[in-house]
Specification:
The protein has 306 residues and is an alpha/beta fold. The protein has two domains: 228 residues, Alpha-Beta Complex (Spore Coat Polysaccharide Biosynthesis Protein SpsA, Chain A), CATH 3.90.550; 70 residues. It has ten helices and eight strands. It has an eight-stranded mixed β-sheet with strand order 7-5-6-4-1-2-3-8, sandwiched between helices. Helix 5 packs parallel to helix 8 and helix 9 packs antiparallel against helix 10. The longest helix is centred in the last third of the chain and has 34 residues. Bound molecules: uridine-5'-diphosphate and magnesium ion. Magnesium ion binds next to loops.
């Protein structure tokens, strides 16, 4: 039996040694054979040479280097594709997912659970903005898709059978948290406290996060598209009522030369058409990416090729 630990790294040269020194003894203490798969998501600092050095010193450490920054979701895909363990554990490289929980995750897996998910007890130290973003995103995601991922995290253990099914998912833009819920299987959760980051700050820019949120919602829900028809129908009903009233006034001879009504209607209709077209555009863009069928990531080099 083998455990795989998968960690994505983006510009984490200082953090990697700290993380490895923490997780290796913990993995060794579980008594299982293990491998570490470290993905360098196209970092611009020395991340790749640090990973290379670590894998030279310890042959249980395998590194994958992307040709450019493809994002954490792609790094997760690459690590899952490369892993060979009977159980696969995914965690962040910055130790915000406390590795002290790994033995507990493995125990739950031994007890027969195929997916063991980390649930955030608290969100740790975070800016008000990022807390607010998360709140709005998870609220919308729950409302649109029906999956409540509030406090969910990417800190998860998956059984080999779940990973095999995951590999058969073909979509280009993945959302690991949502898709692993969609896959089902026998699941359980454990609670953890988000630890503070020791080096640097979050690697996510607001634009990357907004992109991920839009992808996540549009890949799990058609509701925004259906919204357009709902808004359209409501507008139609409103227009009929307004038309009847206007005609009534006209026949009664009390109609005013109403500039206000005209301009308000213009703005309202114009605005909702733009919004609706934008929504359709987002879905078409997604279809476009999927149809192109490009790979999710490009591997520049790995530590295993000699
Ligand atoms: N990460 C990545 N590619 C990216 C951004 C982040 O592989 O484009 C990695 C990062 O190195 C870290 C993990 O994903 O190991 C979580 O990132 P971060 O701590 O910045 O996210 P946060 O904790 O703010 O959600
Ligand atoms: Mg972090």
């Amino acid at each position: 039996m083998k455990i795989s630990l998968l960690i994505p790294f983006y510009n984490e040269e200082k953090q990697i040694p700290i993380t490895l020194d923490t997780v290796v003894p913990i993995l060794a203490s579980t008594g299982y054979d293990f491998e570490l798969i470290l993905v360098d998501d196209g970092s611009r600092d020395a991340t790749w040479s640090v990973i290379g050095e670590a894998s030279r010193l310890d042959n249980r450490i395998h590194g994958i280097h992307f040709s450019r920054n493809f994002g954490k979701e792609s790094a997760i895909c690459a690590a899952l594709d490369a892993s060979v363990g009977d159980a696969v554990i995914l965690m962040d490289g910055d130790l915000q997912h406390p590795p002290q929980h790994i033995p507990e995750m493995i125990r739950l897996w031994e007890a027969g659970f195929e997916v063991v998910e980390g649930v955030k007890m608290t969100r740790g130290k975070e800016s008000l903005m990022s807390r607010l973003n998360a709140h709005v995103f998870y609220g919308l995601f729950h409302w649109f898709s029906g999956y409540d991922l509030r406090n969910a995290s990417d800190f998860k253990l998956l059984d080999r059978r779940v990973v095999a099914k995951w590999r058969r998912l073909r979509e280009h833009d993945t959302f690991f948290r949502g898709l692993s819920a969609w896959l089902g299987f026998k699941r359980t959760t454990f609670a953890f406290e988000v630890a503070a980051r020791q080096t640097g700050g979050s690697r996510w820019s607001i634009f990357k996060l907004a992109g991920l949120s839009i992808n996540a919602i549009t890949s799990f829900s058609m509701m925004p598209l259906q919204f357009i028809s709902i808004i359209g129908s409501l507008m139609l009903i409103g227009s009929v009522i307004l038309a009847i009233q206007t005609l009534f006034n006209w026949f009664a001879g009390t109609a005013a030369g109403g500039f206000t009504t005209v301009i308000l209607l213009q703005l309202l209709i114009g605005g909702s058409i733009m919004l609706s077209l934008g929504l359709i555009g987002i879905y078409i863009a997604r279809i476009f990416t999927e149809v192109k069928g490009r790979p999710r990531y490009i591997i520049g080099s790995t530590t295993d090729e000699k």
